[in-house]
Amino acid sequence: GNSVTQMEGPVTLSEEAFLTINCTYTATGYPSLFWYVQYPGEGLQLLLKATKADDKGSNKGFEATYRKETTSFHLEKGSVQVSDSAVYFCALTPPSGGGADGLTFGKGTHLIIQP
Amino acid sequence: NAGVTQTPKFQVLKTGQSMTLQCAQDMNHEYMSWYRQDPGMGLRLIHYSVGAGITDQGEVPNGYNVSRSTTEDFPLRLLSAAPSQTSVYFCASSYSLGQGVYNEQFFGPGTRLTVL
Question: Which of A63, A68, B105, B107 could pair with A53 as two cysteines, CB 3.0-4.6 Å apart?
Fold first, then answer.
């Protein structure tokens, strides 16, 4: 079946540090890949997505590139802020012909940014 | 647009009680789903629906029922609550890209349920 593996943390960084959160996946074919963010007490918001190999998703200074050869979708940001403190989830939907099974999520990475 | 709305935000039940978690969306999305979020487990799919009158089980369906009588609403019913159902519940909706393929999901704010 499909699966997503990501570092669980907590990951603690100082403000303006460089961020990488690793995400690798197992799926047949070419799934769509997502990063969602959950701020304290809130629901999940889509941060960025990529739907085919070598696509780069970007939003709010965050980036992730769909790497088929390494089955990865690592999240990066060049300079984090205190406001980026949240839980980040990597997720996938099955490749074309699927999707009705919902999203497969990683377990989430709790990111803490200190001033 | 309000997006995906959920009620209540918080609920405390006693073991054996029943209740319904409400979910509604105003985006005319065909696809709706329920997830539960538990510490260290990520989100797990409970039930989903690809349109009015059509529902199916996800990864963890036991103890929960759903129905979809309209495009907008997708309630989740707990028939006899158990402490193992203490969790945060999220409803989500999505749109079709055609041919049964769905893409990004839009999430509600969640319902935090405690079963004593």
Answer: A68
